[in-house]
Design goal:
By secondary structure, the chain is α/β, with parallel strands linked by helices. The protein has 13 helices and 14 strands. The chain has a six-stranded mixed beta sheet with strand order 9-8-7-10-12-11, with helices on both faces. A three-stranded antiparallel beta sheet has the order 2-1-3, with no helix packed on it. The protein has a three-stranded mixed beta sheet with strand order 4-6-5.
Length: 378
């Protein structure tokens, strides 16, 4: 029964089902050829809002992508769909990028920006967008930083994409090594040895949490060394929607989108209006040689709860196309009436972090340095 309901866009939680007059659980019920099945909705609302929404389609010949956004006008909902051919899709991506960056002051004239350049599709697409739209953007200085120290971070195809995309803009690619990480985090063991212990032990669910915070701290460290005031991350729209799913289900504090200020630095998310699918298609059309990258390895594969957050984000996009537009605007409004963020500086790595309400925070230690200390890595 669950397969029948799902195929027709009906949530299991929305109905009560009887088979041959007997109430049954949908999860354990198989539909037989002679069964009489009655499905009653437990709450009256119009399921066809999502099953058969009102749609206006702006078509084109030979489309390769359709962008759908749900519009809410005085409570009346309509999906508006614009189809793009290859040339139109490239224009759409570049226009979405430029307008989102300009309208929210994400990149400002005279800024000195450090961008984390992993060579993954997001950071490579960001540099490609800059390369092709730079004349429409404010003039700023940028340094790309590639952080090494783990096999996943040095995967040959990914590393080559990082080098090629930096060369396309004529910017230097600064390499941060494991020695730099061990120095900043005052580690007593090699970084790769510590991370091997993480992924093979009981704390393996913290694998990506530790990795991401190390990456962030090393970008901050380089920004401070060169006097840059802005750190750019290549998180795309569904990355940020997945982060909001985690935020809503955990209660942990999260800074603003697409700009947040913490510890004297501005953190920006220039790709917050472009989805992962759109970025991959964009690269495939404008720079396919940069779209051939390695699969995730043991250090860049997260726990199942990460998969749940991303699956929820993808399902939300399917049920409510363009939900990111609504979420980011509402989240910006919520930031105005939430309690002010309380900053703390780590006494080990000297990174600034946000104190979390309702949970014990170690004294003057960020999560990573506290974890490294308890595991005797530092």
């Amino acid at each position: 029964m669950t397969e029948v309901l799902t195929a027709h866009g009906i949530p299991v939680n929305a109905v009560l089902t009887t088979v041959n007059g007997k109430i049954v659980p949908e999860e354990t019920t198989t539909v037989g050829p002679d069964d009489v099945i009655e499905i009653r909705q437990v709450r009256h609302y119009d399921l066809d809002v999502t099953r058969r929404p009102a749609r206006t389609v702006y078509g084109t010949s030979d489309p390769i992508y359709a962008k759908t956004v749900l519009f809410d006008v005085n409570g009346q909902l309509e999906q508006r769909v614009e189809q793009f051919d290859a040339e139109g899709f490239v224009r759409y991506c570049e226009e979405a990028f430029v307008q989102s960056v300009l309208s929210n002051g994400v990149l400002r004239a005279g800024d000195s920006v450090v961008i984390g350049l992993s060579g993954g599709r997001d950071s490579v697409a960001f540099l490609k967008l800059l390369e092709r739209t730079g004349e429409r953007l404010p003039k700023f200085n940028m340094t790309s930083v590639t952080i090494t120290g783990l096999p996943d971070w040095e995967e040959p195809a990914t590393f080559a994409a990082a080098r090629a995309s930096a060369a396309g803009l004529g910017i230097d690619q600064v390499i941060v090594t494991a020695d730099d990480i061990e120095r900043v985090f005052r580690m007593r063991k090699p970084f790769v040895e510590a991370m091997n212990s993480v992924v093979s032990g009981e704390m393996r669910h913290l694998n990506m949490v530790v990795g991401h915070q190390v990456l962030r701290r090393m970008l901050e460290n380089h920004a401070q060394e060169i006097g840059a005031g802005t750190v750019a991350f290549g998180f795309n729209a569904d990355d940020l929607v997945a982060s909001m799913v985690t935020w809503l289900t955990s209660g942990y504090r999260m800074g603003g989108i697409p700009v947040r200020e913490l510890g004297g630095l501005r953190y920006i998310f220039p790709l917050y209006r472009v989805t992962k699918k759109e970025l991959m298609l964009y690269l495939e059309l404008v720079a396919p040689e940069l779209n051939r990258q390695g699969t995730p390895g043991r250090f860049t594969t997260g726990p199942q709860e990460r998969s749940m957050a991303y699956a929820m984000a993808d399902h939300l996009y399917g049920l409510w196309p363009g939900i990111d537009y609504y979420l980011f605007e509402s989240f910006a409004n919520m930031q105005r009436y939430m309690f002010p963020l309380v900053e703390q500086k780590c006494r080990v790595c000297e990174g600034v972090y946000i104190l979390q309400e309702g949970v014990p925070n170690p004294a003057d230690l960020c999560d990573v340095c506290d974890f490294f200390g308890r595991q005797e890595f530092s």
